Amino acid sequence: MRHLLTAEELDPETASAVLDTADMLKSTLLGREVRKLPTLRGRTVITMFYENSTRTRVSFEVAGKWMSADVVNVSASGSSTGKGESLRDTARTLSAAGADCVILRHQASGAPQRIAEWLDPTGTRVVNAGDGMHEHPTQALLDAATLRERLGGLAGRRIGIVGDLLHSRVARSNTHLLRTLGAEVVLIAPPTLVPEGARNWGVEVTHDLDSQLPGLDAVMALRVQAERMHGGFFPTEREYSVGYGLNAARTAKLPEHAVVLHPGPMMRGTEIAPRVADSARAAVEQQVRNGVHVRMAVLYHLLAGEENTA
What domain range includes position 48? Predict the structure, then answer.
């Protein structure tokens, strides 16, 4: 694996290898007072975020530091992009400064792919930490890791993804990866929030959440991305919650073993009720914990996997 740009590009073997490595790293660190491995000592990892983030940015930073890499955080507001520097020049500057891996979040779909093309000759690895409304592959990997833990496996499981599909890179990446790993995916949203061509993704698309709940092994509520909405996609937040919010009555319709996920940040009372978010059925905090180990595994496969195997 040279770069990690999309979940769609991951084949079953590569995706499973990353998840297995995450499990191994999690077991290795379990119970350690000092959570530190020497695996990436001497490597430099640079995070470059053009959009706000808490979970993704922090977990990448923790992942790198737990593997003894030197982690440098660069914010767009504090970089030369504020002076008009191009994305290409910024990327090449980071590479010339010694970056072994650049982790990029950008508002433009396709930005990580362009950077990977520009930096490929230099040997610098690129990880997509979310690009526009396109993809968020490490989120899909950590969601898959959480579902494997809670359900014992993904093959044959039926996973529902609910809410703002139109603006969600998480929905796209999860759809691709879950299907790759053998799960059945059903997309559930108001008609105005279903992407054009979603029915060509090889999944079922429906507007009726309640009828789907009894047959789901897991349900993922998506954040309503108001910052990407220009125009009215639903009348009011209350009406959205009535039709598509995960409340206690709805989660009671799920099978007893079913899991509730949310990529965060949660809009409590709109997408998910506080009682559901804080219940034993919810795996939200488990997703965050798994995010660190999954991102450790991604860095391992990009920067150390081949040489350590050899």
Answer: 12-134+288-309
